Amino acid sequence: MPDPTLHNSPASSAIRVAIVEDRPEIREGLVQILNHADGFDCVGNYGSMEEALTRLQSASSALPHVILIDIGLPGMSGLEGIQILHERQPQLLLVVLTVFDDDERIFQALCVGAAGYLLKKTPPERLLASLREVVAGGAPMSPEVARRVVHLFRKFHPPAQAEHDLTPHETRILKLLVEGHNYKTAAIELGVSVNTISFHVRHIYEKLQVHSKSEAVSKALRNKLI
User: Fold this and answer.
1) 29 vs 35, 49, 129, 195, CA distance in Å?
2) Using one digit for the tens of pLDDT, what is the confidence trace for 180-195?
3) Contact yes or no for 29/97 (Cβ under 8 A)
């Protein structure tokens, strides 16, 4: 049976957009903005990340070009959902739409696959322009977020030895392990599941050619990887 929350665009040239937002009034407002704007078609709206993943996985119609995702969701967080969607469908353009503008969430979102980061106070015309921008290959961000990204970039120093090819997210997890975190506390710190931490730690072990947390911590300190 076709998914009633996902439908084909009436115009092949329209930008197909889906929404993941738990607050009905915000979700419906976004639907109205998109469906009343030339060149856009809202092809799905979901109240949770779990619903979005299920519907998009079983969709028989065209997938959206862009998905607007709130990260402060009940159940699975938007950050974890972005990572899963990015791994399943890397062609999807995933844009955060949230009230949170702190460094930690911005960093995490970009690391797990977000193509843009907008705040919910973004005016409708700027929101639509941002959707056009991301489809054209850009990385739209609210001005406050862009300033924080520049600040984060200035603070970031690549490891002295980068031959192990750790991703920024893997380096972040490795740093938490060095600081004494276990899988559970690292998951809480990053706002993801324990399984997600375990998945990344396995890759870290493979890249460092180690077999335990203590070996990974020792090698990280010895080779100045963090």
Assistant:
1) 10, 19, 17, 35
2) 898 999 999 999 999 9
3) no
Cα–Cα dist 226/215, whole Å? 15
Comparing 59-73, 92-106, 157-171, 202-216, the range with the smallest average pLDDT is: 157-171
Report residue 37 as tokens.
Answer: 């704007």
Whether 114 and 40 share a structural domain: yes
CATH of the domain at 206: 1.10.10.10
23-59 in b/e form (b: 16+ CB < 10 A) is eeeebeebbebbeebeebbbbbbbbbbebbbebbeeb
> Do residues 61 and 35 touch, judged by C-beta distance below 8 A?
no
Q: Is 5 part of any domain?
A: no
Whether 55 and 44 have beta carbons less than 8 Å apart is answered as yes
Rounded distance between C-alpha atoms, residue 217 and residue 106, angstroms:
26
Find the angle CA(22)-CA(83)-CA(163) to the nearest 5 degrees.
155
Per-state percent for the chain, helix, strand, coil, to nearest 5 = 50, 10, 40
Helix (H) or strand (E) holding 124: helix 124-135
Helix axis angle for 168-178 and 213-222, nearest 10°, is: 100
- Final residue before a domain boundary, out of 99, 121, 153: 153
Bridge partner list, 17 = 42, 66
Q: Quick check: is 161 in a domain?
A: no
